[in-house]
């Protein structure tokens, strides 16, 4: 390959990759997602997050974002809220294909399959943009090797906020993952402020056994269930109380447990 045909210089700083925006999807006036190029040197595990942002006045402005794409995918995908006066999201929501975004070089986080003890059903409970790390995990083949069933439970205010609903519902027909996912991935979205097939917050749906009844399973328990949580602080706190009340112990990067949690980060 001649020097002129080489890929455009990425010129990353020591701490960031500079990547090119490929497409942007605006789900609602509060929610958008985007895809960008991925440097092959950027390696991460499903469920992790990194610092993402923009150069503003010559300085990097960054927030924690979970990778929504799976580690095997060539491009990166992120899900974000839009806050009108948020320092980063008020700008980031205006990106268009061709723009540059900064990707921190060090992915981290606790929503890792390795942080859970073996079990039968993996429950991924999230609210709002807390869906992002689970978009990655539900496309991670390892999740289906380790668990008999992977349940994604996303709660939002309005139906329009059920981002990636088509993608999730289409996974059983996916050309690469379909065979692995079919019959194992269950999508149980819930809406709290509009009529929908499933209504209400996750803790109430668990307490009433609505979700486990739908699947013909016994009530959620540490015997067979493993749980990942990603949502607002109030959601995480309520779910933690509920799970610990049932005997679940929290896992970490040092010791696996029956559940793990991470805050859905971006608030500004
Ligand atoms: P609700 O409509 O009853 O407040 P938000 O858009 O504010 O981040 O909320 C996303 C979803 O999380 C909403 O459906 C909201 O329900 C739900 N939610 C908010 N707080 C909690 C909580 N403490 N436990 C469970 N779900 C919650």
Key descriptive features of the protein:
Elongation Factor Tu (Ef-tu), domain 3, alpha/beta, 2 domains, 268 residues, 6-stranded antiparallel beta sheet, Rossmann fold, binds adenosine-2'-5'-diphosphate
Question: Could you explain how this protein is built, in words?
Answer:
The chain has 268 residues and is of the alpha/beta class. It folds into 2 domains: 89 residues, Translation factors (Elongation Factor Tu (Ef-tu), domain 3), CATH 2.40.30; 150 residues, Nucleotide-binding domain of ferredoxin-NADP reductase (FNR) module (Rossmann fold), CATH 3.40.50. The protein has 8 helices and 12 strands. The strands form 2 sheets. Strands 4-3-6-1-2-5 form a 6-stranded antiparallel sheet. Strands 7, 8, 9, 10, 11 and 12 form a 6-stranded parallel sheet that branches. Strand 3 and strand 4 form a beta hairpin. The structure holds adenosine-2'-5'-diphosphate.
């Amino acid at each position: 390959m001649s020097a002129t045909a080489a890929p455009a210089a990425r010129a990353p700083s020591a701490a960031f990759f500079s990547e090119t925006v490929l497409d942007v999807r605006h789900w609602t006036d509060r929610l958008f997602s985007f895809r960008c190029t991925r440097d092959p040197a950027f390696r991460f595990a499903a469920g992790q997050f990194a610092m993402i942002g923009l150069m503003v006045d010559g300085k990097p402005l960054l927030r924690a974002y979970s990778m929504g794409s799976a580690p095997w995918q060539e491009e990166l995908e992120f899900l974000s809220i839009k806050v009108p006066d948020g320092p980063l999201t008020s700008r980031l929501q205006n990106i268009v294909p061709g723009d540059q975004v900064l990707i921190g070089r060090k992915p981290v986080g606790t929503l890792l399959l390795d942080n859970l003890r073996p079990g039968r059903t993996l429950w991924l409970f999230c609210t709002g943009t807390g869906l992002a790390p689970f978009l990655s995990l539900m496309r991670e083949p390892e999740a289906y090797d380790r668990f008999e069933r992977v349940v994604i439970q996303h709660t939002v205010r309005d139906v329009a906020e059920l981002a990636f609903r088509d993608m999730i519902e289409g996974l059983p027909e996916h050309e690469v993952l379909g065979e692995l996912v079919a019959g194992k991935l269950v999508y149980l979205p819930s809406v709290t402020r509009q009529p929908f097939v499933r209504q209400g917050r996750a803790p109430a749906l668990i307490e009433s056994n609505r979700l486990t009844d739908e699947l013909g399973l016994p009530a959620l328990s540490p015997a067979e269930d493993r749980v990942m949580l990603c949502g607002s602080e109030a959601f995480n706190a309520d779910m933690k109380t509920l799970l610990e009340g049932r005997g679940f112990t929290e896992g970490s990067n040092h010791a696996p447990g029956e559940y793990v949690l991470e805050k859905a980060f971006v608030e500004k």
